């Protein structure tokens, strides 16, 4: 609510103007500087942004982040999509895809033929998180899809070259915008490919995004409300201790959720390895005689929304969001509601 109130307070001077005017560019600058501080980015790292969300960024990366060959860790719906985009790109070689069963994650294998390793910090569809580490001996860039993990999970920026995300999860904003934290090596790759003979649509041109980001603007008009909401959330994180604060809230919520599930006689964590269990998206399986869909329907009818499982996973489970803006006490209250509903079914 505080984000919405801040937007309303600035609405008459901020909304409805060109994204190239100072009021908007100052807010974009606030976002870029705030993310730099939040993630403790080393010197030389830059914050890029552009329209279209993470799906758009995957396509952009096929033009200006991958030289020829990439390796992808695939362990759910979203981690597989970047690989599919690369496979469809006629100017790139077939990607290496290392897959594992849902509920787990695979590990990268260093290969001199690979110029980009594609990781996913948190697989939103399954509730699996992975620690971000450069593969030993790898020479290629490390690009990390962090859409549901950014700010809710700790990360060492020296272990990635491009950490990209959209702001609708941990940053409690809206989608349709991508942000990318890029190392000097990633910037060098973007600039090198921009001077090659590779044809690139302007909307997917990361060099254009880089040039505009340095001016605190996007290539084409963004949703101004999204940027304002994002800036407010970043400020809240930084004012209260940075990423240790934001990820700490998610970690506390996760401890509440998984402790409850392990003690329950009708629920259990879907991810069996505790080290792989996400702190931002928890997936909880239910006993066969307890209908999770019915629980979700009853919760929704009483104003508790969006606990449904990921549709393509097809399991009898609930999926619980634990993003930093969610008070851990609210997660505890939700679980009390689940206990009440199951007890009365």
Protein model, in words:
The chain is an alpha/beta fold. It folds into two domains: 2-239, Aspartate Aminotransferase, domain 2; 243-344, Aspartate Aminotransferase, domain 1 (Alpha-Beta Complex), CATH 3.90.1150.10. 40% of the residues lie in helices and 15% in strands. Helix 4 links the parallel strand 2 and strand 3. Helix 3 runs parallel beside helix 4. The longest helix is centred in the C-terminal third of the chain and has 21 residues, at 243-263. The radius of gyration is 20 Å and the shape is globular. The mean pLDDT is 95.
Determine the N-to-C terminus distance.
Answer: 34 Å
Globular, elongated, flat, extended or rod-shaped: what is the shape? Answer: globular
Approximately how much helix is present in the residues? 25-40%
Question: Mean of residue pLDDT?
Answer: 95
The secondary-structure class comes to alpha/beta
- Secondary-structure element order, N to C: HHEHEHEEEEEEEHHHHEEHEH
Helices, by number, come to 10
Kindly identify the CATH topology of the largest domain. Answer: Aspartate Aminotransferase, domain 2
Number of domains: 2
Number-wise, the strands total: 12
CATH class wording of the largest domain: Alpha Beta
| Beta-strand fraction estimate | 15-25%
The main sheet orders its strands as 1-9-8-7-4-2-3
CATH superfamily of the largest domain: Type I PLP-dependent aspartate aminotransferase-like (Major domain)
* Largest beta-sheet details: 7 strands, mixed
Supply Rg: 20 Å
The CATH architecture category of the largest domain equals 3-Layer(aba) Sandwich
Detail the poorly predicted runs: none
């Amino acid at each position: 609510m505080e984000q919405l109130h801040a937007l309303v307070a600035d609405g008459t001077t901020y909304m409805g103007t060109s994204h190239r005017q100072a009021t908007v560019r100052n807010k974009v600058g606030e976002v870029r500087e705030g993310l730099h501080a939040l993630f403790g980015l080393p010197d030389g790292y830059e914050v890029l942004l552009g329209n279209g969300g993470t799906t758009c960024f995957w396509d952009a990366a096929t033009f200006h982040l991958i030289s020829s060959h990439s390796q992808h860790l695939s362990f759910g719906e979203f981690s597989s999509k970047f690989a599919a985009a690369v496979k469809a790109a006629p100017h790139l070689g077939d990607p290496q895809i290392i897959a594992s069963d849902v509920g787990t994650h695979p590990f990268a294998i260093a290969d001199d033929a690979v110029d980009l390793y594609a990781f996913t910090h948190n697989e939103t569809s399954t509730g699996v998180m992975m620690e971000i580490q450069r593969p030993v001996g790898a020479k290629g860039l490390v690009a990390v899809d962090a859409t549901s993990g950014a700010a809710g999970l700790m990360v060492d920026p020296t272990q990635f070259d491009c950490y990209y995300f959209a702001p609708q999860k941990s940053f409690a904003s809206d989608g349709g915008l991508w942000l990318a934290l890029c190392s000097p090596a990633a910037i060098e790759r973007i600039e090198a490919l921009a001077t090659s003979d590779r044809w690139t649509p302007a909307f997917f041109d990361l060099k254009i995004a880089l040039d505009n980001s340095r001016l605190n603007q996007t290539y084409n008009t963004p949703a101004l409300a999204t940027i304002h909401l994002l800036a407010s959330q970043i400020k809240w994180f930084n004012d209260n201790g940075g990423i240790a604060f934001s990820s700490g809230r998610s970690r506390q919520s996760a401890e509440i959720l998984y402790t409850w599930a392990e003690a329950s006689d009708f629920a259990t964590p879907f991810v069996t390895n505790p080290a792989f269990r996400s702190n931002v998206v928890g997936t909880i399986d239910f006993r066969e005689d307890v209908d999770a869909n019915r629980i979700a329907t009853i919760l929704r009818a009483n104003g508790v929304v969006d606990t449904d499982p990921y549709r393509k996973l097809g399991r009898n489970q609930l999926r619980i969001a634990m993003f930093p803006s969610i008070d851990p006490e609210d997660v505890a209250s939700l679980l009390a509601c689940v206990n009440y509903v199951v007890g009365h079914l």
